[in-house]
């Protein structure tokens, strides 16, 4: 739940921060780059272009106006990708001014459409283009003659430097007349540098990145700094993969802080960037600097007096607590949280106290304690103070706890339905996504794969309620990662490994290894590979994956290690690991893993023919699965019970018990589970028939059952189990006097036996995993 509560961070980014104009050196609008943009707008209004090209250019206008200055080569390339005809016209217009005389630039400004009279064009006074043109014309008309001349020289240098240095990697257009005090309006300091990577121009709408090898630049203007910080903060929240790489962003922030160390918002973005790479020292350092600068700059105190000062302190402590929670430092988190609670109580800040209470029950959950009472109190108080976001988070936390405690599905779904109404009412799209991902996980835990698949697809196809800025959809959140991982595992269970590869590849692209949610798909991918190798009998390939799984999840790693050891007939080592794992899971109340461990332990008893010894374990596992409404595990426990009864000599009872599990397994089970169920059913039918004349119907029915089992195992390329099926088919056809079918099955068995070159313990694999 820690990632769910990340949105509780107090983040006044770009809302109450003030960028000091004297430090960032605000320049006026008239620069060579802005003249190039003005030329583009002029050609758009004067020339005829197709509707698709106009749409692409319209999307490009705002980023070009608000973004950092580009070199001429990059600017022309960006425009050319939208409309080559307009790019050529802009290039020709700039050539006329740069290679002509000063009067040519004067003529260009005089021919611009007037925003106050252009009612039928994009240059109308209230439009984006009209406002830009008004600023440009007003600034240009204020220039003295010497300033106009220096602007013209700057434009010439801007134009000719593109042809003198055609490579896009050149940086550092010299600031002409930088030492002239009367040239503030035309200083090219804002146009210095190669800011946009050439390869990223395929997506001109806010998806270009700063070059990673860009050297330290001069100070940005206020608008450029604000635009850069707002853009990167938005991308980090909604699509981290499209934000700057951590190293490149760190370099830009260091350069920005070099010119203004007290720029609070830059410190906060530095904190977010450090969290991406799990740098605890730099994260805490930047977070503390952010609140120090926020307090020292007086941004809070000016509007709220002493209350603003205290507000920054308590939210600083709260953010520090959340930071330590993120890194698993529970003691430090608890101390910071208590400090935040103390300050909030002194100030009577109920909103901050509710945030603290939310983090308090989250911290208790992380430590493995029962936080139900705290969570319920948090929901009640959040509802009382009209904080729907916190109330909904609390309800979702209660649902998660209820699922692990064995609550029935309809109660959990009713609670989620009530929260969904709240989400849609207040347009809380982030919580809608979390709710759908949680519903997917709950159905998956209950063994309802069809419902889990439906909810996962619903989440992936839902339209986000967030405003679509920077051309980004909100699709890199933890909820999407969880849903995609569930879909990958569900496809793997059905043997659709090509679809699994596509899903995993998408996850790798959307959540690169350095991102915070990458561990989800890493563990999912490793588990899928492990199960596939185990199904195919390639234990030598499955064994190395155990170490990688253990690095991401120790419990899952130990369970997989026991499975490999059991498959390699190292029963003593496997039994010791399973006992340790059961004790650990009972302590941490991990019911699903406890049941799986019990089933694996029962399989070890089978290896030593201790079928009667396995019965108490299987009955205990079945009771636990039914108590927690875990249908998939309950069905698996029934399969184990049926096999045990078969081996104890009561096939009729085994077949009766098996019928309880066939329907849910065929409806929601994995292909391997279906094959195992059909194989066990055929064994029971053969045992019941006993090849007696009055029981020939059961034997004939077993033929169809074995054929169905063979189809399931063939889909997974499970050759060892196919060998067992062909062996039983040969025996069955021989007993029924079907010589041709018997010879065919015997030949298939012989071919697989020679290929595998390993003993075929049919008995022990008929119902085991």
Automatic annotation (TrEMBL):
Domain Anaphase-promoting complex subunit 5 N-terminal: 30-162
A Pfam family assignment: ANAPC5
Gene Ontology cellular-component terms listed: anaphase-promoting complex; spindle
Localization terms from the record: Cytoplasm, Cytoskeleton, Spindle; Nucleus
InterPro entries given in the database record: Apc5, Apc5_dom, Apc5_N, TPR-like_helical_dom_sf
GO biological process, one term: anaphase-promoting complex-dependent catabolic process
Annotated region described as Disordered, given as residue ranges: 184-221
Family: Belongs to the APC5 family.
Protein name: Anaphase-promoting complex subunit 5
Organism this protein belongs to: Amphiprion ocellaris (Clown anemonefish)
